[in-house]
């Protein structure tokens, strides 16, 4: 699917480089038998945190890649508010993760594959534009969409 819903333009090369990093993290999740989703928090051009799905290993339903990365970023930056940071994630975030992204005050969200069934940025819910939230995150979807989607499709195909 070639939909590229987006907000302000940024350097495509940087977005793709950070998304490739997130894909490598998603592969770590896959190697551990987890759904392959990876996330990277970047601030001022530097990786401040990363994460990959680990709910099975941690026995924790909140251990999504985004949550792991946001927690690590808060510790690294010694602040739960991550203003000015960009979160790169291989899959459109779910409702739980979008809530955390909003509360963390992430400045920009970039994701790879769209999730029409559960995505809470612009599909099942449009929380990026929800009037009831007091923080709006700029976002862009579809960065390396095919590579991110293929990783997920291959994972679920192998499990069937």
Structural description of this entry:
- The chain is globular, with a radius of gyration of 14 Å.
- A hairpin with a 2-residue loop joins strand 1 and strand 2 (46-52).
- The chain is α/β, with parallel strands linked by helices.
- The protein has a five-stranded mixed β-sheet.
- The model is unreliable at 1-9 (pLDDT under 50).
- Helix content is 39%, strand content 18%.
- Helix 1 runs parallel beside helix 5 and helix 3 packs parallel to helix 4.
- The two termini are 23 Å apart.
- It is built from five helices and five strands, in the order αββααβαββα.
How is this structure best summarized?
With 160 residues, the chain is an alpha/beta fold.
Provide keyphrases for this structure.
160 residues; alpha/beta; 5-stranded mixed β-sheet; disordered N terminus
How many helices? The count is: 5
H and E order: HEEHHEHEEH
Mean pLDDT level:
92
Q: Span between N and C termini?
A: 23 Å
Task: Give the amount of beta strand, in percent.
Answer: 15-25%
How many strands? 5
Helix content: 25-40%
Stretches where pLDDT falls below 50 for ≥5 residues? 1-9
Secondary-structure content class: alpha/beta
Radius of gyration: 14 Å
- Write down the overall geometry: globular
> What strand line-up does the widest sheet have?
2-1-3-4-5
Main pleated-sheet profile: 5 strands, mixed
